[in-house]
Request: fold
Amino acid sequence: MEHITSKLDCSFIRSNLFAYQEKQLPDSEYKEFEDHLDACEECTRIVSDFHSVTSVINEKKSEEPNPFSRTRILQRIETQMERERETSNPGFQKILHPISVSFLLLIAIIIGFSIIKQGGTRFSDNINHQNEIQVMKSELNIPDFIDEENTFFDNN
Reply:
């Protein structure tokens, strides 16, 4: 019995692979599906490949994963990250960092002393000027505190 296949039949086969495998096709369509497979080698190969793939998937689903695989993977990641940190921080940087911090601290102290020294002379100069002003006031008989109320309103 020679069965003539058409592209419509082949497209039906390809679009209903899951339904065929799960036996969810109506009886009449299931019978036509199998008749087409008997007549079409390409569709037979596609269905066979589909069965192979789904059987492998079902086998892998039933396998229990190794309970320690997560721990092993995380340990490998941590080890790799630690290696990268070690290679990015060579030993000379461990020495260079404290030296540079010490150098910057020394520069800050020197700048601080120079500012204090300059500020200190200005302050002492200001005191000297005030002393000179006091001497001049006493020589000219100018009182330190002038009471403006008594000066302007001396009506008592």
Remarks:
- Helices lie at 7-15, 17-21, 27-39, 41-62, 69-88, 91-139, 148-152.
- Residues 1-5, 152-156 have pLDDT under 50 and may be disordered.
- The two ends are 147 Å apart (CA to CA).
- Residues 71-139 form one domain.
